Amino acid sequence: MLVERILADVLPNETGAARLQQVGLFTLIYMLQGDDEPVTASRLAGMTGQADTQIGIQLKKLLKVDLIERTKILNKQGRGHAYAISVKYNAKAKRLVEAIEKARIA
Question: What CA–CA distance (Å, rounded) separates 48 from 69?
């Protein structure tokens, strides 16, 4: 019940499928953000087998509800730019992170 309330508060007006995608992507970002390699949309697409456009749509939704943030970085080739994605530590994101951590321990 607690998780349902968190999801309803943090990701309002979304279908169950969209919430599942967004929570899954948020969890993946949270788990990967401590790696040596930055979390980028391309990396997420490669890991999940989803199209870049589908990842982009879900990332825009997470940005809109203020759960993640993007930081401009150099791309792998060092010639252009990409965006490193990370969890934005605010009250909303904190609730999701706490739910994730609680589930990891259980």
Answer: 20
